Amino acid sequence: MDHQRRADLMLLLATSFWGISNCLTAICLRDMQPLTLNAFRFITAFLVLGFVFRKNLRRVSLVTVKYSILVGLSLVIVYTSLTYGVMYTSVSNAGFIGALSVVTTPILEFIVYRKKPEKKFGVSMVLCLVGLALMTLSETLKPAFGDVICLFAAVFYSVDLMITERAVADERVDPLALGVCDLAVVGVVISVLMLSVFLETPALPGTAKVWAASLFLGIVCSGVCLVIQSVFQRHTTASRASLIFTLEPVFSAIFAFFLLGERIGVRGYLGAALMLASLVLVEVDVGALFKKGKKEAE
Fold first, then answer.
1. What pLDDT sits at residue 138?
2. Residues in the chain, pLDDT under 50
3. CA-CA distances (angstroms) from residue 284 to 24, 45, 139, 161?
4. Which of 113, 146, 227, 296 has the greatest number of CB atoms lying within 10 Å of its CB?
5. What is the DSSP letter of 118?
């Protein structure tokens, strides 16, 4: 097996773990409060990864720490929004709406950097909005409260991607140390919010099932997946990696179907299909694919 194929398979594995995270979050929320769960998740991930990559942390630069604070703050909003969103909408909806960062990122890049999106982005945007409407609007044309909350996650995940892109372009930044420090920032900030603003009562998981789900969320979905992405993405192309990541909401819907018995109806699945098509259209160079197919035919 060549390096690229192995990398693609490992990134697909990470994507499947991210897909199951919404299901595990729903399970954990039966026993744990939202911020308590996230604090437990990220502090656990930091303790494990911090130990494994302690050498990187010992020589971490001040610039890396500064960027990790910015990235961490955006991730606080992302994961807080997703966790509360799962409480008030379906796991499938949360997965697909959270993946809208593929669409919101070009919009923010245009606003901040004046970077014009490709022409196909307009078509993708229309498909995405139609799909979103089919998935989320009720008979009274009102989205669920959780659907609106999940939109914040998509927007601020775009912010996270833009800051991270600038950070890793800086030679003084260690990408691996940045990722580990991000976990610490998220864990600490959410813990402070939990105790001072939302006034949640800290509590550990109450059952073996929730212990297993919360530990998997922290160590695997937040920790191991970060390592997989950092190590293997350099062996494949950015477009292939982005296309693989768009499969996260598909995995989310599949796991919700089998693990939680969740059904979103024909209209919901049609909307999900349109949203997935819009995500793929954004990431795939359709023109290059047609040119490649034409050359092979000749």
1. 61
2. 238-239
3. 30, 33, 34, 19
4. 146
5. P
- Identify the residue whose tokens are 């775009």: 158
Rounded Cα gap, residues 102 and 239, in angstroms = 12
- Please name the residue that has the structure tokens 């979050």: 25
Q: What pLDDT shows up at residue 104?
A: 79
Residue 20, number of CB atoms within 10 A of its CB = 23
pTM higher than 0.90, yes or no?
A: no
Q: Hey, what are 84's tokens?
A: 């509360």
Q: Which helix (H) or strand (E) holds 124?
A: helix 120-136
- The SS3 assignment for 137 reads strand
Beta bridge partners of 260: none
* CA 266 – CA 135 distance, rounded (Å): 10
Token digits of residue 118: 């490709």
Q: Which residues contact 120 (CB under 8 A, 6 or more apart)?
A: 281, 282, 286
* d(C-alpha 118, C-alpha 114), whole Å: 13
CA distance 99 to 105: 11
Task: Give the per-residue pLDDT at 239.
Answer: 46
Residue 135: closest CA among 84, 91, 103, 102: 91
**Token couple for 164:** 């991270």
